Amino acid sequence: MTQPVAKDAVDRLGTFQLAGEADGPALVFSQPLSFWGGIDAETGDIIDHSHPGLGKNVAGRILVMPSGRGSSSSSSVLAEAIRRGTAPAGILLERPDPILAVGAIVAEFLYDIHMPLVVCDIAGIVSADRIAVRVGEQGEAVIHKAQ
Questions:
Q1: Catalytic annotation, pick one of 34, 50, 71, 73
Q2: Is the predicted pLDDT of residue 6 greater than 80, yes or no?
Q3: Would residue 73 show up in a list of annotated catalytic residues for this protein?
C-alpha cells in the first residue's frame, strides 16, 4: 500500500531499468553495495563488514547509491529478498546496473512482485527522506522527494 507524499515535494526524472511504483524512507550510501555477501536475504540486513551500512536494514526502504557492486550472484540474492519481502521497495542508482536489473526482472517474472529500479540524479537525497517513485505520462520515472 502506497502512502501519499507531502505536497511540498521536489520532483526529479529518471530512467527505469525496471518500471514500477514504490515509496518509503530513503537509505542512502555513497558506496556501492553488493547483494551477494552484502545482504542477508532472510532479513534484509546489510552483512558486509566492509560497508558503512553494516547492520542497517534495506527492507521497505528506497535504496539510493551510485551503483551496484558485482558479483553476478547479486541477481539471485536480490530476487530471493524480493520474494521474501526483505528487499528494498525500490532502488535509485546514478549508473545502470544490469546485475540488479536481472534480479528484479526474475522476481517480477517468477513471483509477480514489482520493484522499481531507476537511474537518476541522486544528489541531495539523504537517508530518511520520504521518496516516492511513480511512472510518468511518457513512461519516465518520476521521483518525488518530500521536503
A1: 71
A2: no
A3: no
